[in-house]
Amino acid sequence: MSTLSLPPKSKMLADEFLYGVATASFQIEGGINNRLPCIWDTFCNTPGKVADNSTGEVACDHFSNWKQDIDLIESLGVDAYRLSISWPRVITESGELNQEGVNFYLDILNELQRRNIKAFVTLYHWDLPQHLEDQGGWLNRETAYKFRDYADKISIAFDDKVYAYATLNEPFCSAFLGYEAGIHAPGIVGKEFGKKAAHHLLLAHGLAMQVLAKNSPNSQNGIVLNFTPCYPESDSEADVKAASFADDYFNQWYIKPLFDGKYPEIMAELPKENHPEILEGDMAIISHHMDFLGVNFYTRAIYRADAEENFFQIDPPAPLTDIGWEIYPKAFTELLVSLNEKYTLPPVYITENGAAMPDKMIDGVVNDQDRVDYYQQHLNAVNDAMMQGVEVKGYFAWSLMDNFEWAEGYLKRFGIVHVDYDTQVRTVKASGLAYKALITNR
Ligand code: FCB
């Protein structure tokens, strides 16, 4: 029997500690005819961008199955559900609320409220309306103001139904993967773009925080950042410097402006043409007070010095998950402790953690012991960080169910619930049952 457990005195066993499951609009909804196109629709329809050439057209058809999916969420015994709002579903091209789309989410929020499940709403989980990308997307400063207007309208419409708002999910992915490496939508490549997109995303966050503070003062308002801690391959000074540079470039770049109101000092080492354009007052907007920080953690990365570049990432050593990410839970504890040392953090929620595994359904059962082991190690890692003084208030498993895994399409399964994409039948995996038992036996 697969189980999950925590030390008897762990604060993660307290009633106040929240357990949840997470999803994102584009990854599960489908229902594309009831919304405007987004950058991921375009990206999916560009041959060669998504591993299995799939799209978000149907996904988990959560658009039709949302009610059963809330039954499923409730059946897992969780305290909270983290979902994201599809911007192109709720805002028209002229910037008005699309009431049909708003109602879709209002129904979900009402149903969650009725079942006493706290709603953690992410306003932007990467599905930028395509018409805004056509105007330059996150390279256009105007998009930040469009995001503020969207946040303003939707937070008024949602009234008091939301427990926590995250403005953005993982701006690193939107900026770096979308506008620098080009492996995510909109697929733009060039070192001169990434930091410009990042600045506009962070500005959008700050502007949205202002309107959330006004419209929704009783919810917890913050952001969700992902961290892939950077380790040097050796103790050599050069490798240590390379890892530190990578950490500033990929991780600290997104958190330092929020808490210190400035970008890492490596900015001075980046060519001028790669710098963002920072207007007076921007950093004050970006460093708006936050009620919580959402932390997403999956893996670490190892770097060595490189003669031409500032760092070189080496292949991850085993053990690896099915998506090729090293399983290294110690980095999770070290990350949380180090963030707590570097910054004056608000309470932290672990807004995503989980693993893709090569699941097999045998006789209607998915016995994903490998995923249970991953969760066990990472729950322990969070507990260790809390014992070292980090204030963590909740933990969300990524994901509620298998779904569209971005550039990997449907090939990688992250769910604690299995999805049969032909029939849309959901089957709780052993990991889902173990998670439920941990939560309900507290
Ligand atoms: C994170 C994303 C989430 C999911 C996981 C595996 O970067 O926020 O949507 O794809 O990775």
Annotate the secondary structure layout:
Layout: E1 18-22, H1 25-28, H2 39-44, H3 62-75, E2 80-84, H4 87-90, H5 99-114, E3 118-124, H6 130-133, H7 142-157, E4 164-169, H8 171-179, H9 191-215, E5 220-227, E6 230-232, H10 237-260, H11 282-286, E7 292-297, E8 301-304, E9 312-313, H12 330-342, E10 348-352, E11 361-362, E12 365-366, H13 369-387, E13 392-398, E14 417-420, E15 425-428, H14 430-440
Parallel strand pairs: 1-2, 1-13, 2-3, 3-4, 4-5, 5-7, 6-8, 7-10, 10-13
Antiparallel strand pairs: 8-9, 11-12, 14-15
Bound molecules: beta-D-fucopyranose (FCB).
Task: Give a structural overview.
The protein has 442 residues and is of the alpha/beta class. 38% of the residues lie in helices and 16% in strands. The chain has 14 helices and 15 strands. The chain has helices at residues 25-28, 39-44, 62-75, 87-90, 99-114, 130-133, 142-157, 171-179, 191-215, 237-260, 282-286, 330-342, 369-387, 430-440, and strands at residues 18-22, 80-84, 118-124, 164-169, 220-227, 230-232, 292-297, 301-304, 312-313, 348-352, 361-362, 365-366, 392-398, 417-420, 425-428. The strands form 4 sheets. It has an 8-stranded parallel beta barrel, surrounded by 5 helices. The protein has a 3-stranded mixed sheet with strand order 6-8-9, covered by helices on one side. Strand 14 and strand 15 (425-428) form a beta hairpin. Helix 7 runs parallel beside helix 9 and helix 12 (330-342) packs parallel to helix 13 (369-387). It starts with 17 loop residues before the first strand and ends with a helix. The mean pLDDT is 98. Bound molecules: beta-D-fucopyranose (FCB). Residues 24, 27, 169-170, 173, 226, 296, 352, 398, 405-406, 414 line the site of beta-D-fucopyranose.
